[in-house]
């Protein structure tokens, strides 16, 4: 039985191992996701309730992290979240753990009052969870990436009405 819960400090080593193994052979990764998670945990963008682990028989098999970002335009700034990263240990992939983590993170973010989540990810995977192209909302990421990989989801209908601009990530993303 899968269980999804907030990560605990005791989960750090398991999460690091999962991140390293999950991204080891990913051609779009620089294999430093574990270091990114460590930096984000120490940053003001970190929200403990949005760092979740998936466990199976009390063993950590997956992880997801949502952190604070802003979508900035000439008209102001709108709080949002960044999904980065989600990972499942290779021995447990293709069993629904990643999807369960994403759904649980969406639900938790809604409960905390957030309206949207932005990500850079696989064009064929995230649309099944409601993600749409950032460009359809006039939202841009502050780096070069294929448009089909830049996505956003509204956590409640109309959350992005009138929202557009450049995503401002926490400095920890660029260190």
Task: Supply database-style keywords.
single chain; Aminopeptidase; 175 residues; 9 strands; alpha+beta; globular; nine-stranded mixed beta sheet; 3 helices
Strand count, sense and barrel status of the largest sheet are:
9 strands, mixed
Q: What do we call the CATH homologous superfamily? A: Gcn5-related N-acetyltransferase (GNAT)
Q: In angstroms, what separates the terminal alpha carbons?
A: 38 Å
- Helix fraction bin: 10-25%
Give the integer mean of the pLDDT values.
96
How would you describe the oligomerization state of the chains in this entry?
single chain
The secondary-structure class comes to alpha+beta
For the secondary structure, the number of strands is 9
Tell me the fraction of residues in β-strands, as a range.
35-45%
Summarize the structure.
This protein has 175 residues and is an alpha+beta fold. It has helices spanning 12-23, 33-41, 97-111, and strands at 2-6, 46-56, 59-73, 76-88, 116-120, 132-133, 139-140, 150-154, 165-168. The chain has a single domain (2-174), classed as Gcn5-related N-acetyltransferase (GNAT) (Aminopeptidase, 3-Layer(aba) Sandwich).
How does this model look, in words?
The chain has one domain (2-174): Gcn5-related N-acetyltransferase (GNAT) (Aminopeptidase). The chain is built from three helices and nine strands; from the N terminus they run E-H-H-E-E-E-H-E-E-E-E-E. It has helices at 12-23, 33-41, 97-111, and strands at residues 2-6, 46-56, 59-73, 76-88, 116-120, 132-133, 139-140, 150-154, 165-168. Strands 1, 2, 3, 4, 5, 6, 7, 8 and 9 form a nine-stranded mixed beta sheet that branches. Strand 2 and strand 3 (59-73) form a beta hairpin. The radius of gyration is 15 Å and the shape is globular. The chain starts with a strand and ends in a 7-residue tail after the last strand.
């Amino acid at each position: 039985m899968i269980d999804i819960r907030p990560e605990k400090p005791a989960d750090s080593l398991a999460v690091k191992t999962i991140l390293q193994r999950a991204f080891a052979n990913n051609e779009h990764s620089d294999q430093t996701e574990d270091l990114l998670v460590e930096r984000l945990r120490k940053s003001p963008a970190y929200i403990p309730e949005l760092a979740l682990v998936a466990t199976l028989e009390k063993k950590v098999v997956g992880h997801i992290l949502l952190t604070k970002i802003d979508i900035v335009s000439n008209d102001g700034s709108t709080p949002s979240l960044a999904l980065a990263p989600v990972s499942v240990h290779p021995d447990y992939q293709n069993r629904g753990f990643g999807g369960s983590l994403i759904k649980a993170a969406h639900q938790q973010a809604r409960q905390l009052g957030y309206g949207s989540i932005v990500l850079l990810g696989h064009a064929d995977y995230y649309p099944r969870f409601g993600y749409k192209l950032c460009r359809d909302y006039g939202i841009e990421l502050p780096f070069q990436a294929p448009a089909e990989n830049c996505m956003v989801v509204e956590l409640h209908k109309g959350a992005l009405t009138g929202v557009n601009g450049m995503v401002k990530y926490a400095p920890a993303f660029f260190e």
